[in-house]
Structure formats: C-alpha cells, structure tokens
Specification:
globular, transmembrane helix, Aquaporin-like, 0% strand, Glycerol uptake facilitator protein, 65% helix, transmembrane, MIP, mainly alpha, single chain
C-alpha cells in the first residue's frame, strides 16, 4: 500500500542521541556545501568586480556546486543519509523514509548550517554581500516556480533511484553521491540563467538571511518542496510499490 510507512514518529526522537548525531552530520554537510557553493558566487563577483555572470562563470559555479554536493552527500550518507536539503528530507518523508519529528530536526540543522556558512563567508571575504537567489529580469514568478518544481523533482527522483531504492545495489549505490552532485550541476547550468537554480531551500535561505534580502524567497521554498513531494509520490506509487519485477536477461 502506498505511503504505508509515513510516520509522524515520537517526540522522544527530537532529543535522542542518534538524532543529534544525524543532525550534526546534516549541519556540517550543509555548511560545507553552501560555503563552497555560495563561495564560488562571491569569488566570481570579486574577480570580476561585480560584473554580470557570464556563461563560463555560470559553468564554474555549477561545477563547484556539483563537486561540493558530491562530497557533502558522501561524507554524511552513512550517518544521516546525506540529505543536505530540506526538499530532499521532505521528499523522503513522503515516502516513509524519515519521520516527521526527525525531519524537522534535519531541517533546523540544514538551515543553521547554511546560515553559518554564509556568515563565515561574510567574515572571510571582508564583508562582501552574499548573493541570494533571484529571478532574471525577464523571468516571471510563476515561471521560476515551475522551474524549481521540475529541477527539484529531478534531484529528489535521482536520490530515490540511487540512494533509497533497495534495488540500487553495487555500483549504483556507490555512485549515488556522484549522481546527485551531477544532476545539481546540470540543473544549475540550465536554470542558473533564469532563477539561479536553487533546488534547496537551505541553500537559498543562508544568503538571503545574511544579506537581509528575501525578495521572492517563497519561490525557493514552495517550488523545491513541491518538487520533492511529487518525486516522493511518483517513486512510492509507481516504482517502489509496483508489484512488477523487471525482466531478467533470459526473459527479455
């Protein structure tokens, strides 16, 4: 039955030592990811004296995000599952892979990690302003919302297919952090020209908080959370809950 494992959980999970360990892993991993990702944006602004992002600059930012997320997921996968993203946590909650109480703790850790990362960047860059995700001048709000839904769907679906699905064995499971990093880099290469390509409310929250600029910030929450929700529903209904097994090589 779909959603058979969705659970609110118990309040005791909030202060359980195991939950604290997972939260610490999420905090550190999100800090590392946002520090490198937002740091690449700040570095580009410093090197170009604040010039507009060029195609080559966008490629560099995308690659930096992809590498950083690859590492962030890899170092926390065996502790917390390597979510590093409230949208991923929400998508996994929909599929019954984490309880609501534990998911809330993950969210707090992820948001704190992103905020601390951006505060550190502000210090080490001698007060350079962080760059919150923003819509391009020609991008309508509804277009950015749909874009965030679609690209986050791709990210969370990748998480399910490579890291959650029990059939993801051997090399597929080992390559999960790399696949997750690559889909984020690919999405930023495309969506970066339209709305920055967030896919991650924590990644958007940190720079917005430090810069005190929350213009259209809701888009970077609603879009990714809806994308994560749809990915969780699709994978739970159509993949994990399917009774059909793939044909073996001898049957195909």
């Amino acid at each position: 039955m779909p959603f058979r494992n969705v659970s609110v959980g118990r309040y005791e999970e909030v202060y359980h030592p195991g939950t604290f360990k997972c939260a610490l892993a999420e905090f550190i991993s999100t800090l590392i990811f946002v520090f490198a990702g937002e740091g690449s944006v700040i570095a580009y602004a410093k090197l170009t004296s604040g010039a507009d992002l060029t195609p080559s600059g966008l490629a560099g930012v995308a690659i930096c995000h992809g590498f950083a997320l690859f590492v962030a997921v890899a170092i926390s996968a065996n502790i917390s599952g390597g979510h590093v993203n409230p949208a991923v946590t929400f998508g996994l909650f929909v599929g019954g892979n984490i309880t609501l109480f534990k998911g809330i703790v993950y969210w707090i850790a992820q948001l704190l990690g992103a905020a601390v990362a951006c505060l550190l960047l502000w210090v080490v860059s001698d007060g350079m302003t962080t760059s919150p995700h923003a819509l391009s001048s020609s991008e309508p709000v509804w277009g950015a919302l749909v874009l965030e839904i679609v690209i986050t769907f791709g990210l969370v679906y990748t998480v399910y297919a490579t890291a959650v699905d029990p059939h993801a064995k051997g090399n597929v499971g080992i390559l999960a952090p790399l696949a997750i990093g690559l889909i984020v880099a690919a999405n930023i290469l495309f969506a970066g020209a339209f709305d920055g390509g967030s896919m991650n409310p924590a990644r958007s929250f940190g720079p917005a908080l430090v810069a005190l600029d929350f213009t259209n910030h809701w888009v970077y929450w609603v879009g990714p959370l809806l994308g994560g929700l749809v990915a969780g529903v699709v994978y739970e209904f159509m993949i994990l809950c399917s009774s059909h097994e793939p044909l073996s090589s001898s049957e195909s």
